[in-house]
Specification:
Radius of gyration of chain A: 13 Å
Largest sheet of chain A: 7 strands, mixed
Structural class of chain B: mainly beta
Number of helices of chain B: 0
Helix content of chain A: under 10%
Helix content of chain B: under 10%
Shape of chain B: globular
Oligomer: heterodimer
Strand content of chain A: over 45%
Number of helices of chain A: 0
Largest interface: A-B, 23 and 22 residues
Chain lengths: ~110, ~110
Amino acid sequence: EAEVAQSPRYKITEKSQAVAFWCDPISGHATLYWYRQILGQGPELLVQFQDESVVDDSQLPKDRFSAERLKGVDSTLKIQPAELGDSAMYLCASSFNRGGEKLFFGSGTQLSVL
Amino acid sequence: QKEVEQNSGPLSVPEGAIASLNCTYSDRGSQSFFWYRQYSGKSPELIMSIYSNGDKEDGRFTAQLNKASQYVSLLIRDSQPSDSATYLCAVITGGYNKLIFGAGTRLAVHP
């Protein structure tokens, strides 16, 4: 069964360092999402791609976060510099339909900033 | 006001009982509603979708939608300990069909 691949599974870093997360969506899925989930809260949408274009990044802290999906397939989310408050689970998801319908999530990257 | 609101719980029910989970949303124009289940340490997985007012049944799960009241609910019949998880209500909103999640309700089914 096709899955959304994410790496790394866990990341520990010190504040002010740079971190990067990678996601490979299910083949053929045009829409890719990055969510951040703080313990005890629901996932918060950071950025949504339609093919290679960003269609929503209104909640992305653009002074330190960046995201790209250059060829419309896999994607990278970067944080530089990391802050203590960035500790969370970073979830990547993809969907075949254009926006919101039946998301498939990857296993996530658990980030701890020390 | 949060866009999607849920009681955080925990909601504790005995095995075999009906668990009732509730959700309200703020965007009156929303047309698509979902319930995701998330086990501890795992990613969310879709269990139900509903688009029209009324009830939609799938096995032991029933989703209910009332657009006039901006209210969505999930009923789990014959609850099992394996149903113990956090249930996330999600609503599509906005021009590019953003999927917005509530904070989730933690359900505990005890034997």
